[in-house]
Amino acid sequence: MSETKKTTGRKRAAAPPPAPPEDARARLFRAATELFQNKGYAATTVREVVEAAGVTKPVLYYYFENKEGLYLALMRGVMEEFEALIEAHSARTGPARRRIESLCEEVLDLFKRHVPAVRIMYSIYYGPPQGAPFLDFDRLHLAFQNHLKRVLVEGREAGEFRFGRTEDAMWAVIGVLNVAQEVELCHPETALSLPDFRRILGLVLSAVAAPAGAPVNRRRSKGVKP
Amino acid sequence: MSETKKTTGRKRAAAPPPAPPEDARARLFRAATELFQNKGYAATTVREVVEAAGVTKPVLYYYFENKEGLYLALMRGVMEEFEALIEAHSARTGPARRRIESLCEEVLDLFKRHVPAVRIMYSIYYGPPQGAPFLDFDRLHLAFQNHLKRVLVEGREAGEFRFGRTEDAMWAVIGVLNVAQEVELCHPETALSLPDFRRILGLVLSAVAAPAGAPVNRRRSKGVKP
DNA sequence: TTGTGGATACTTACCGGTAGGTAGGTAAGG
DNA sequence: CCTTACCTACCTACCGGTAAGTATCCACAA
User: Fold this and answer.
1) Contact state of A36 with B128 under an 8 Å Cβ cutoff
2) Which segments of chain A have a pLDDT < 70?
3) Measured on CA atoms in the order B112, B117, B120, B126, is the torsion positive or negative?
4) Which residue's alpha carbon is at the shortest distance from the C1' of D7?
5) CB pair distance less than 8 Å for B127 and A123
């Protein structure tokens, strides 16, 4: 099966490979990402992972605690990046609409850069944990919701938006983001382009936009940074 | 599904249970649904299923071909119901907005009545197949999209809606439905009520609604049933 | 210069457990 | 006496994980 010559020169006097292009740890990482996203956590065996990575089984246990540890290492990277994105956005200023647009676009971009990991996250967040160890995806999701709500409220206070319940507007926006993610996951060949996404988000935001020329309703504009 | 009382007549001289209220097949069905949704297909063992159903292993293989067959039987019921719903809606008439609202509400209702099965479907549709046999969820999803697009176009032709690209409007509507489903799956305790859902859908539909009192743009109104 | 000791990065060979699945039997009813 | 509806006992394959050994390099003392 594996074309990997088991005669890994590693021994033998003559130094065999000039330098492995990717070290074993990185190869394990890539192989596991690929397999977990294609087959799921439980359905992927460590044997498959190490074979795809071209290493032997104990190597996996040398670099990672075990199968769970490998999974956790995979997920944590993306989770931290997402958290940092929201954190960075919390400090931003400017028109609420622009902030929402750029937030969504950046989330979508992060998502596209980590499709395999996100597919695993999605399937575990919405579906059953496939024997995979617990990870608090919910915390991140909630942090995102809260940030979005804050920007929406600030936009309303600044007279930029007009809507009844903040949650309604929030869900409408999240719906657009979800759809873009869904298409990316299930039909990457017809994935929404950035202009597509902007148009659809614009459509929804137009439903909460204050009428053009509406009075800037900045009532005390509390908390809104200058 | 079929409540056909097999009346498991087999009772030893001293019948331990007075009478099983549910026959073995139905109990297996229920147990598998519960376990698959809680642990995932691959992470659920047939031993767990039969134990939860209170039967022995060969009973499962007596009623179903194997683990895969049990899974397929589970999914097919919901898929057929969904398909029938879209079929039934294709024949409906009336204002496009009402049709979209009732379609979404009925889909959401079907969804709520089959949360366990849908959770499995979701996690496999968006995520990796967990070693589960292939099922063409995509066909159903596409059928739904096409129906929705048709109603939207009819609504525009009738002067009820005004939007640029049909796909944009479709995705915006689907986004709302997705969000409602997402909340149902991940936070059933704060699931959107029907009024909540109607408000949010109304918000999005208001973005594609033709201005009040706009001329009814029925240009040849081709294909629109009277 | 050489010896050596430890860290690093693996290897082969194996373990106990459990997975899905089955062979073959049995009790009860028509 | 055959069919239906189950049971006990078991099989093989493969699972996650490990014990123990080995080649290579480098630091540092002799």
Assistant:
1) yes
2) 1-22, 213-226
3) negative
4) B56
5) yes
Q: Which residue has the tokens 């609409």?
A: A97
Tell me how many helices (H) and strands (E) chain B has: 9, 0
pLDDT in tens, B41-85: 999 999 999 999 999 999 999 999 999 999 999 999 999 999 999
Among A125, A168, A200, beta carbon nearest to B172: A200
3-state helix, strand, coil in chain A (%, to 5): 65, 0, 35
d(CA B134, CA A45): 20
Residues by Cβ under 7 A, strand C:
A 6, 8, 10, 23-25, 55-59, 62; B 9-13, 44-47, 57-58, 61, 66-68
DSSP classification of residue B136: -
Q: What residue is closest to D8 (Cα–C1')?
A: B56
Name the nt closest to A70 by C-alpha to C1': D16
Q: Among A72, A85, A87, which Cα is nearest to A120's?
A: A72
| Helix (H) and strand (E) counts in chain A | 9, 0
B169 touches chain A (CB under 8 A): yes
What does the DSSP assignment read for A171-205? HHHHHHHHHHHHHHHH-GGGPPPHHHHHHHHHHHH
Q: Which two tokens stand for residue A89?
A: 């956005």
Query: Rounded to an integer, what distance in angstroms lies between the CA atom of residue A183 and that of residue A105?
Result: 15
Residues B126 and A182 sit within 8 Å (Cβ to Cβ): yes
Per residue in B84-117, pLDDT tens?
999 999 999 999 999 999 999 999 999 999 999 9
Residue B209: predicted pLDDT: 94
Task: Please state the φ and ψ torsions of residue B161, each to the nearest 5 degrees.
Answer: -115, 160
The alpha carbons of chain B give a radius of gyration, in whole angstroms, of: 22
CB B100 within 8 A of CB B151: yes
pLDDT at B225 over 80: no
Closest alpha carbon to B180 in B100, B116, B120, B109 = B109
Q: How far apart are CA A136 and CA A211, in angstroms?
A: 40
- The answer to whether the Cβ–Cβ distance between B43 and A204 falls below 8 Å is no
How far apart are alpha carbons A217 and A31 in whole angstroms?
A: 54
The pLDDT value recorded for residue A13 is 31
Judging contacts by C-beta atoms under 8 Å, the chain B residues touching residue A177 are 175
Q: Taking the CA atoms of chain A, what radius of gyration do you get in angstroms?
A: 23
